[in-house]
# Entry
Amino acid sequence: EAQVTQNPRYLITVTGKKLTVTCSQNMNHEYMSWYRQDPGLGLRQIYYSMNVEVTDKGDVPEGYKVSRKEKRNFPLILESPSPNQTSLYFCASHRGGAYEQYFGPGTRLTVT
Amino acid sequence: LAKTTQPISMDSYEGQEVNITCSHNNIATNDYITWYQQFPSQGPRFIIQGYKTKVTNEVASLFIPADRKSSTLSLPRVSLSDTAVYYCLAAGLSGGSNYKLTFGKGTLLTVNP
# Structure
């Protein structure tokens, strides 16, 4: 089954404690993205990747890091989480040259 | 990447046809229009994509006039399960900076019994 998986689905952490949210897709897609969703603000793109070792900033990259060492994985790293990063995070992937993005189930992060 | 404008919310009743319009006045020549549907606490799901005229699939139709400055998503005979947020995007397929995507706030469609 074609899918994008994210782990963990729920995470409560404290300010400053480094964390990583994993994302994996099994569709051999070149392109992957991370989004955050907050009430009243819609979906905002954090980072995207066009292929292995190729990443670029989206609209709200501050406080986040990403890496793309393998085609299937695109982890989101919060080196020093802060309460304003409390949000619902989605990972997505799609083929090159097409915009049908496949989204993961989401990770709800709470930073206290 | 063209800026899009949609109504914040719409109300409908079961069995009606619903049309959601999206404005994209600055659409570029190589931009396609794509619509997504999102239920609460789930990731968005692709509905339909088009470049011009009319596109139809099993769940929706997409109407794009000749000037391409707007598009209309048409949902035939909606049911309660169509209550969701609908997002319109206008972006190119050529990659590069076009993958800096902005979904905006979307349109909350509420279908009433």
